[in-house]
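debug: dumping io for the single-chain case to check the tokenizer round-trip. Nothing else runs in this session.
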Amino acid sequence: MNLLGWIDAPQHSLAQWDELVALAAAARADGLDHTLVCGMGGSSLVAEVLAETFRKNELHVLDSTNPDAVRAAERVHDVSRTLFLVASKSGNTVETLAFCNYFLRRARPGQFIAITETESPLDSLGRERGFRAVLPHPPDVGGRYSGLTAIGMLPAALLGIDGRTLLERTRGVDVKAAKALGVAIADRAMAGRDKLLVAPPPQVDWLAHWVEQLVAESSGKDGRGVIPIVHDPVRAALPDMQSVGPQEISSDPLDLGIEFLRWEYATQALCERLGVNAFDQPDVDEAKRLARAELTGAQQSDPLPTLSLETLRRSARPGDYFAILAYLPQGPQVLAEFQAVRAVWGKALNCATTLGFGPRYLHSTGQLHKGGPNTGLFLVITADTREDMPIPGMAWTFGELYRAQARGDVRALLARGRRVAHVHLSSLAEIAQLHP
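debug: decoded output
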């Protein structure tokens, strides 16, 4: 799986740029003045990074199967004036197809653009239903390495970003220096500093989330890996932590293309140094299998043998990290409360901490959690949803899928001997009580 098409992606996208700009202009001319990106992991995260970095509010991302999150995405803008960008390399990502099926019942096929591999299920669906466009996803580019393909550049065109300049600047990437960065990170990790604090300048703060998924999903396997730390609420100097700070990352938003390509080269070199395949994600697929088993009844919905919060705390060892895995819709208040909980645990255990929202993290850091070093303390948090709703064309509801994904991931973590606690909240007010 040496998927190296990302190396030439900037040049291919430059050749495609005028086509993407024309596609975006035609959509706007037809009154589609808002974009909802439906995807998971690398297929959607880059669009969110671009929108947040360039302070554009005409694009949102849906990457949660929580019914409340789907309902909120539907309400953010007039559906009749929304362009739905459905992105999935494989074309069979269950969450992405669920989003697509849901909105196809509420919008015209001409409001949809798909980006997927040729002859995939999504490709067939788009052509059969008469989507506005179906763009081919390069078969030799993995999802998390696809930021400089149409996956990232069509959102850039839709947002009115100067994608041509962003792409042209990638010619200035120092490949040798980028690879040296990856090797240095790997060497420090093998020497015991396997937590990587990623702290970009404020102007490109969201780049950290993209680097997190790239490094975590690429390196976290075979018991090895680098644990990216993003938005650390404590910023303590820990003996097992290294960092890439704001002085090492460009603050110019139009240099994001440079940073995407630089980190791709660095991550490839990092993984080669660690001795792992940078381009597969075997444990992501395992979590998907267990979620399907939950949905089909192959797994009983009995209580899972997880730890109490106190037992999780007492199991901590030097070199561990604490990870909050929250199956709740992500919003400013919820995020702030979890950051506060994260800080309390980090100070109590004197360790690095991370925060992920499910199911989006399953397609990024989820690989590291299960395939990386067994140094994680995992707190999985679920809560009741207000009102469930069916997924058109599928045999289950969004709520059932959401719960199955959480339980499937817990099962996958337990099967690999991970230390896992699970707390189900009856209200969001209980978040503040999740202290060690």
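debug: round-trip ok. The mean pLDDT is 95.
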